[in-house]
User: What shape does this take?
Amino acid sequence: MSKIVVAGSLNMDLRFAMKRMPLEGETVLADSLLYNPGGKGANQAAAAAKLGGSVAMLGCVGKDGFGDALAKSLEDCGCDVSRLARVDDPTGTAAIYVDERGRNSIVVVSGANGRCDTAYLKGCEDVLKACDILLLQLEIPYEAVWHLAKKAHALGKTVILNPAPAPEEGGIPKDVLACVDWITPNETELSRLSGLPCEDPEQIEEAASKLRALGAANVLVTVGSQGAFLCTPEMAELIPTEKVKAVDTTAAGDCFNGAFAVGLSEGMTPAEAVAFANRAASISVTRPGAQSSLPSRGEL
Assistant: This one.
């Protein structure tokens, strides 16, 4: 089986469950507080490993209890964490507010993730050379992501970029997009990257086509409970997902991306890999937490 390398963030998630989100200046009592291993990079690595992928994680955590817990969580999922860096900065932390309808708002303190820089990643090029698929997000310094995308492309690897959170300004450089085989935004991220509205399938197709024109080889747009919109040179099609009762959508996109990478690594067609990822994400939203919500291959 192909090897997947995930380079990105690791955060300890503090999940506050409440009936509704607070308004500006308002205090709301939460029903519960849970500590869950998270971070987009770690979530995607955990998702891929739990679904049977051969996965290595590159990233940075602090020399603290949260760092220990994050490394152990990934290791328990079957992920290779031997090249994680332990740095002096505190481990990244995210405060996640979830209402009774499963909707969430998230505030992130990057901490040690800011040390996942080009210098560190240059010391991990042997890991990159040994893989077949590189999965990236945007919770580590942009320069590090751009460096890895270009390096992996030059080595002939498949590059998947989940542009989350989407850049506030400047977007993704064209020379980086040209190195991306799959870019996987949601509707909001696609709208920000393309500068176009993305409120219906026709608008999503137009915006996805613009990203392809800017250099991305293929665009895969997650559209929540509707599934995912696949835009390649050969097709533009919405691939639906199963309807479920959502409890917590926190890591649904991360689950989708990790599962999609596994599907590609096993030789599935893009449409098959999307359907596989849709099913995984559908399971993840039916239970709380980030990595704790991720399904195993047996459950799928």
